[in-house]
Amino acid sequence: MSLSVSRRLAAVTAFAVTAAGLYAAATPAALAAPPAATAAAPTPPDIPVANVKAHLAQLQTIATNNGGNRAHGKAGYKASVDYVKAKLDAAGFTTTLQTFTSSGATGYNLIADWPGGDPDSVLMTGSHLDSVNAGPGINDNGSGSAAILETALAVSRAGLKPTKHLRFGWWGAEELGMVGSKYYVNSLPAAEKSKISGYLNFDMIGSPNPGYFVYDDDPTIEQTFKTYFAGLSIPTEIETEGDGRSDHAPFKNAGIPVGGLFSGADYTKTAAQAQKWGGTSGQAFDRCYHASCDTSANINDTALDRNSDAIAYAVWTLGAATPVPPGPSFENTTDVAVPDSPAPAVTSPITVSGVPGNAPATTKVDVNIVHTYRGDLVIDLLAPDGTAYRLKDSGSDSADNVVTSYTVNASSEVANGVWKLQVRDVAAQDTGYINSWRITF
Ligand code: DTR
Ligand code: CA
Ligand code: ZN
Ligand code: ZN
């Protein structure tokens, strides 16, 4: 790509003014490690409700493309599992697919472990991912599934190092009688059950005529949620539709402390409840419960947002999140032109030294690429031994530039050595350049 005059000047200026910087950029010394974080636990993040709704849109598309549902034993359920799993794998989680059989069909539980934390003290968060056969199940229970997925992704974005070990679960065949969660709990050896300090369940948290219900099982978990909503001046009620009606039941029956949130199903909102929560009295919390109309339109965004944020608050608080002193960071700011397709990939090297042991499961890669059609680009992280970690695939994305942070589970790689950012333009027209990139351990 021909450099515009301003870029040529900028390039020359950069070379003249920061020759040392360029030298440093080519073989950078570790950037000064920021001061260690204070002992206070980090503030739980706001969960962007737009991200949660984007997951719901994907689940809606999956149902639409697979006979209108995401039910156990149907293609739509397995496609839902594959979607969630891909997001978690890309975010550095260790995922496991557990299979079981129910009503003659294979069912799937998806378990995702966040590396680190005390293996003898596990905080688990779960939602059932299946719908009924009648419809796409966006509130029941895409809402819970999407909210805990986005919370897990927030854990990854934060590079959280909680005291407890965090585990997330997406259950199959809940609508057949909590079959997946029962199978998971019953398959756990007693020693593993005893390590679970608490199970948080989220099944229907975006009901269109919402209530704010808190499970009244474990008092500590219950109080955690009540504290959150009190901070928003939102009154809550105890969930009284029956303990046995969702996936927390098998955990509770195994003696594990449980809690959760619920925005209501087919029961009717009273006048008193409408007075404090808004919405329509005399109408069900979710008129599309177990119906074909449980689509993307069957969500109250405010309830979904508040409950998603409450989930993050509970995971951070109950997980006893501790500060994350950022590890050593290395950067290369040398511009590297990315030629238009067809052309070989280009690379930008960073020599890492002085970092003991292996890279962490939460190795962070910050990428800054200037380009006029980022969908042309395939981006990989190359470890010193040549192992490639795909950061970004090509696709129809006409937006400019890639300015993104990726989390890579590079825990099998020795940290010291020459890491490379590899970029290849795989579609004709449009060019750009690697502006800078950084790796943080
Ligand atoms: N049985 C759940 C919906 C449901 C009904 N009452 C509660 C109470 C707590 C959680 C969930 C529910 C379902 O259809 O998936
Ligand atoms: Ca939010
Ligand atoms: Zn249901
Ligand atoms: Zn449900």
Automatic annotation (TrEMBL):
Belongs to the peptidase M28 family. M28A subfamily. Residues 324-441 form the P/Homo B domain. This is P/Homo B domain-containing protein. Pfam families: P_proprotein (PF01483), Peptidase_M28 (PF04389). Keywords: Hydrolase, Metal-binding, Protease, Signal, Zinc. Residues 1-32 form the signal peptide. PANTHER family: METALLOPEPTIDASE M28 FAMILY MEMBER, PEPTIDASE M28 DOMAIN-CONTAINING PROTEIN. It comes from Streptomyces cirratus. CDD domains: M28_SGAP_like.
